[in-house]
Amino acid sequence: KARKVKNTQGKTLKMQIGELVRGGSTVMTDEWASYNGLAVKYIHETINHSSGEYVRGNVHTNGIESFWALMKRGIVGQYHKVSPRHLDKYIHEFAFRYNNRDVAVAFDLALQKAVSI
């Protein structure tokens, strides 16, 4: 799941994570200070990009970084410009694409969902 947030302050990010992630789950982030304190409710693993660390065993942020990179390229290459008013709709579209990237019949699934609304 992904969604637009009003800012990247700790209070905002922790509230969003709290709504989407079950307590006790493992949360992997980079070293952004707003994530400090997640270990109170989660197993918080951190990757330190500023020191050149990108993977440590099973700990990484490659999945979410890949998602945002694909979305940014999709907006620039396909839509060219997105208004803040409709940003959530684009985020949902790209989350669907990302979550179904390995589904052989993804197009059929998208059509089925579109006609069932």
List segments where confidence is low: pLDDT < 50 over at least 5 consecutive residues.
Answer: none
Please state the average pLDDT score: 91
Net shape: globular
Q: How many H/I helical runs?
A: 4
The proportion of residues in beta strands is 5-15%
Q: How far is the N terminus from the C terminus?
A: 20 Å
Q: What's the helix-strand series?
A: HEEEEHHH
**Radius of gyration in whole Å, from Cα?**
16 Å
The count of DSSP E runs of length 2 or more, i.e. the number of strands, is 4
Strand order of the largest sheet: 1-2
Oligomer: single chain
Task: Give me the secondary-structure category.
Answer: mainly alpha
Query: Approximately how much helix is present in the residues?
Result: 40-55%
Q: Largest sheet, if any?
A: 2 strands, parallel
